[in-house]
Amino acid sequence: MADFSYTDAIDQAKTAALAYYDGSDELMTDAEYDHLLDRIREYEKANPDDVVEHGLFTAVAAGVSVGGNVTYDVPMLSLDKVKDLADIESFVDRVAAAGGTVRLEAKFDGMAFNARYENGTLAQVSTRGDGVTGEDLTDNVMKLHITGLPKQLGSALADGVLNVRGELLMTRDDFEFSNANRVASGKPAFANPRNATAGSVRKSDLDYDVRLTFMAYDSDRGIQDGNLELAGFTTSSGLDIAADSTDVIARVLAFGDERKAADFPYPTDGVVLKVVEPEVWAALGTTSRAPRWAVAYKYEAETAVSAVLDIIEGVGRTGNISYTAIFDPVTVDGSTISRATLHNPSIIAELGVGIGSVVQVFKANDIIPRVGRVVENPEGVTPYIPSDVSPSGAPLDKSAVIWRSTDPADSIGALISYAGSRDALDIDGFSTAIADALVSGERPLVNDLGDLFTLQFQQLANLSLGTTEKGTKRFLGGKVAEKILANIDAAKAQPLNRVITALGIRKSGRTFGRRLANHFHTMDALLAATEEDFLTSGIEGVGPERAALFHEGFQRNRAVIDKLRAAGVNMGEEPEQAAEETAAALPLAGMKVVISGALNGPLAGTSRNEANELVERMGGQSSGSVSKTTSLLVSSEVGTSKWQKATDLGVRIVTPEEFAEMIGR
Prior knowledge:
By secondary structure, the chain is α+β, with helices and mostly antiparallel strands. The chain has six domains: 1-66; 74-298, DNA ligase/mRNA capping enzyme (D-amino Acid Aminotransferase, Chain A, domain 1, 2-Layer Sandwich), CATH 3.30.470; 302-406, CATH 2.40.50.140; 408-491, Orthogonal Bundle (DNA polymerase, domain 1); 496-574, 5' to 3' exonuclease, C-terminal subdomain (DNA polymerase, domain 1); 586-662, BRCT domain (Rossmann fold, 3-Layer(aba) Sandwich). 35% of the residues lie in helices and 21% in strands.
């Protein structure tokens, strides 16, 4: 272990665990994470005097701080993993000795949630967090379409408090539906169902529809699965097996084949083995992080071996540097792959991979192609050394596991695509493929947002979009070019808040685009504002970090803003006194308005961003949370946490139909 750094390994493991629990970009696969923990264990065994407390082997969330504002009387534990069939045999023998029966269920890769019901009404939904405290995501969850999570329970369960625990996830159908809607809204596709689940429930203002499923597996009243189903919950269809290791292992292997069927509803890479009888649970007990009466087993991924032909570095939308291995095509799990992710520089160094390496490739979670290990490094092959600069030559921020480009221009394709999306300049027909084509090549047509507004018809009509399946070149064409140019021209009149959003300044987005526009009114005022001006503006949510980012962002975009101004893009205007008097007469003047849930009636189909813009055009201030300063809650969902809080505070509540009437729609 000469090249092994104990402290670095702990930091890597904690960072990867936090990314997993947050649902952000996956930094390493389960297998790689387990391998890293094994190396930490080996080091600690050989060097007991160097051991430090890190919680990786004892805490529910692998030693990272992921708790929240909801405290659990009974901790939400995670599951220990069994690595091979011998471990399964040992577990089953232990269950048999205790007189128990084994239940086999699919292992779901979602988010562990606790659903709390009060007198039959869903009152709170929270994450597992660190097992003792979790994060309250009730407001977000209430807006989503979730199968198997009833908002009202039948009369048999309507008394007192009931906590139901389970996994929030996306089935294959959920994932396909949600991804299609996300792409149609102008955003990049989700990487996988787990990230899609976590990303969806953590967003308070999704402007496209997603579907999720809640799989209930336990409750604090000891309700069995059959009764949970009768109450409206979805449960995993488990199989009870006598505690005989031969029979259990046979069923585990059989399920490994069944899960690969095209019509199997859930993406799963393993099984959960747990004891059926509650009395045996008590006999077997728990550790600080996991029950002794349940374990998880993960199947080995199908693999193939190929030689690395090239390693490509790229820049993602947020500036993250990606590393992709290109290799001779191989077939894995029925599909042909020729490229796979190499994660980040730490993993590349750990693998020792280079151009020419013979590597094992697999599909992580049956979806994402990855390089698992180096099988052989032929003579002359040296480990790949990631560049210190981005593909455009910009210095990298290497302070975290994932390196980032310090030059926003490296992400120009993603920025241009986002600028054209419905939530920004709303350029109908403008796609990610078109944005990528505009910024690609030796002489890109678009180098920044301002260039988008100087495009000519012939440039767009002749824009190359690659080749067809037959190998012939594809071009955008005159008809599409004409439509897009007309929509770009129309986008010049978009309100200032959308222009601000389109600039892509960090920590701005749609909400702060509106707040900045409402406070400063003009782009000139924003350019003249100092960091202190932003900090003392009184804009809700602007602290020292945002103030610094806003000031730096507008100053950095001066040249782009000049191009936009020259092209005739709306730069805002100072309200005149007459306009101020008119604003005072608007139906929502002086009101702080919160919109919760989907809008229906005359406002059906209005996105959350459009609804908030509408509030502000009518003289109000939009907000995402109910407080004592809230004037109005727009909601048709009785019993939600926002509805209850508004009721407790005496805040006026109206339905979407009543709200539409208030503003004359």
